[in-house]
Amino acid sequence: MRTAIFRVSLLVLCCAAGGSLLAQEGHPLKGSWIGTWGPSKAHSNDIILTLNWDGKVITGMINPGTDNMEVKSASLNPDGWLVHLEADGKNAATGQAVHYVIDGKIDNLAFRNRTVTGTWKGGAESGAFKIQRQ
Amino acid sequence: MSIRSSRLALALVGVLVAAAPTLIAHHAIAAKFDESKAVTLSGIVTDIDWKNPHVHILINVKTGNDVINWAIELESPIALQQSGWPSDTVQVGDTLTVQGIAARNGSKQAWARSVVMSKTGRQILMVRNTMPPAPLQPRPTPRGADGKPRLGAAPGGVLGYWAYPSSTVLVEKNASIGMDASGLLKNVADADKVAPMQPWALALYKERQRRFLQDDPTYLNCKPPGGPRQFQQPEGVQFVEDPVRQRMFLLLGGGNSNYRILWMDGRGHKGQVGGDDDNPLYYGRAVAQWEGDTLVVDTRGFNEDFWFTNGGLPHTEQLRLVERFTRSDFDTLRYEVQIEDLGAYTRPWSTGWTMRWVADQELPKHFCQDNRP
Question: What pTM did the predictor assign?
């Protein structure tokens, strides 16, 4: 039990330190985001999103390295911190092309582990999502 | 330890860790206290917390039939000790009268502007922060054997450092905006006059202002005050010249007592140890050269993990600073900076201020400490 307590404590402290080390005070969308989207028959509920800002354009990748989809267009409206993303992927079951439209809102803007929550649509499917900046 | 109590302890650690980012820990004064909430409190000291980054004295204040315990916040132990106030200046049981400003969140906390010991009527625990008097006649700029101005110690080894910046906020040259010393705007509607920000940067800056700068990572997480901010810290900076290795050290009294190396050996921005595209830095990578009597420093490679101004202006990894240091006379250092960051701003912009020479002294010590109020 004592070992378990030590491990859990270490994990908690590492998480706390990690949050501090990975603070990001620049463009609010830049960075790696992890969360869930669903429900969906065609996709896992887990989602990883990497976003970058070059001063003019937001670029990024959804689920890099697995069923990766390049972000085709992205915008951030500072009036309400509204996020809009579009990407093209394939339906894992049918192989048909699917155009995804994702709309959300940044919450807890001031925090390094801020979140984006919203909805997504892809073909006939749709659902809600929530991602948190790592 | 029982399993139940172990779980409770773990849960408490978890709660504290989760809550840490939202707590008002080490902070700018304006982040925690409201200038418009003046208070006068008289009471008996119940406890003294003489620790970094801020000393706290707890006093019981009688209000009607109630006794309320107030936390009176003061400067750091080191600043108080340097001003002649040791930790035993106040004892439990002493009666104090405090004038100050109360916490924004309504809690029973106040920032002390004046503390008077009732039994003596003497004002105590105030920090002396007086700029050295200017000489009647400006003294000439000290120069080395090469004829170049010395930014650090004068020939003969006279110690000193630069402090007392004429401005502690970063605002585009010639802009006139109401702002306090910590960079808090008097009117958030003036935000777009501060610098030519992109829309997202302007909105983020306004958000930081509306939250009274309480998210400043320099205070909250002891992140270094990189960029121009390092020259606006109360603890000052010190140049240490190393002509043999063609470099200059820039020591910081504030932040975490960090230092920069200004390379003067003609190198470019590639190939320097410490800091590249994959490992950007809080103070960037600096190369420097003399242009006449002005040291011009070109710095790039900043990370985005800190605020580079006291007021919370955003920046990105595209930030490039061109800093110009001119020791116009023995006691005056002119600092000018051009800010290039097309990730956050619509065009390059510039500003500047002066600093005063503090002779015969080493840099003051400052210690930041995470998550202590």
Answer: 0.85
